[in-house]
Specification:
The chain is built from 16 helices and 14 strands. It is α/β, with parallel strands linked by helices. The strands form 3 sheets. Strands 1, 2, 3, 4, 7, 8, 9, 10, 13 and 14 form a 10-stranded mixed β-sheet that branches. The protein has a two-stranded antiparallel ribbon with strand order 5-6. It has a two-stranded antiparallel sheet with strand order 11-12. The termini are far apart.
Amino acid sequence: MKKLLFLSFFLGVLCCYAQNRKLPIDTVVTTQHSVTINGTAINYTAKTGTQPVWNKKGEPIASLHYTYYTRNNVKNRAARPLLISFNGGPGSASVWMHLAYTGPRVLKIDDEGYPVQPYGVKSNPFSVLDVTDIVYVNPANTGYSRTIPETGKEVDREKFFGINADIKYLAEWLNTFVTRNNRWRSPKYIIGESYGGTRVMGLSLALQNQQWMYLNGVIMVSPADYKVIRRGGPVSDAMNLPYYTAAAWHHKALPKELQDKDLLDILPESEKYTINTLIPALAKGGFIGETEKNGVAKKMAYYSGLSEKEILEQNLTVPTAYFWKHLLKDKSGYTIGRLDSRYLGIDRQLTGTKPDYSAELTSWLHSFTPAINYYLQEELKFKTDIKYNMFGPVHPWNNENDNTRDNLRQAMAQNPYLNVMIQSGYYDGATTYFNAKYTMWQVDPSGKMSDRFSFKGYRSGHMMYLRREDLKNANDDIRDFIKRTMSNGKSAKY
């Protein structure tokens, strides 16, 4: 009997100490660090924690995890820029640009971006923390961020998981963040990668017209513009060719006449052919003449590394998945990566219409997953049993009423300070560099704001910053963009 009472007591004590696995809704951990950037030692503060999203009643319906870096010993914080960073997906955490691009710590990888063991992080000598403070935001259900059911209800997914819902609640969240951290007077920039490009195009107007928060710059990294990617048709199909040219050149799969030239010498050729000949040809569909069709197939083969026969068999519209599978089929037998076509994969069999897996993504997850878990828990001291979602449960995602491209146009028209820079890797086969250029061309049909756009290309893929040379160049481009677009006392007027 005594043993039974003791066991009951012991189990009761355990129950008292047992805790549900949940994230604190509103908390922050502060640590101090230093880094050397471009030869200058910089001391900085890192704050990582959670901040709520509230409903109209003031009740928390989500808690977003963020990491905020500020340079120490800044005399005039109001004059110092703030860079607000998002990744994409939708459903992707902010880990990618946080731990490999602009932040003060980056992955331990080789100079081309491939994983090495032991996994971990190292100082980033090219970080833009020397010229701007940075906050990395994880949208709902990504990273450590989580939705919270309202009292007696299920989570209302429509408030979070769609293009317009995402933009609306994030704009509100940023208002709170800027207020809490006394950054209303600072010049502000937002940067978004992949789907984050769609997100920041929409946020530029939402921040301006709903939160009265005006920006100096929008930076889109390998942007996903669904007005092109998901619409299909002649323009969308044709726009892949310059990417095919770049990837084939990298793998030495082009005719000698092209292969002997530099990449940047041949891409303008492929781009010109795409705009002036291929789009009009594909627009004719099944009514294109046989002679013209054969001529187009020959030229596409010349610029893509595929055979005329393969191109004709697909009626001149070659899917990207087919290209990744077949470019090297008769050469080395490898597949090439989707997000970065420098990466190689091995399929079960040579035949098929698409690769078995994305060679580049599996390689990246090798490095990023252990590094972000180590870094947040051990270096930034944010302790939690919550799983860090590299990709979170956000689907189904509502893509309806996507007006983000025009939102960016309107935000720029209303705000003479607002400038845009696009960064893309030539070997990105998911959100291609030429699609990014096309997006830039289409934002402002009037052409009156064309001098406020800039495009930067790099000899790597979707996450061009994984290649050390491009990590330096891309950060330098951001640094120059910020310096160039600071108002420096100039009035916001036309």
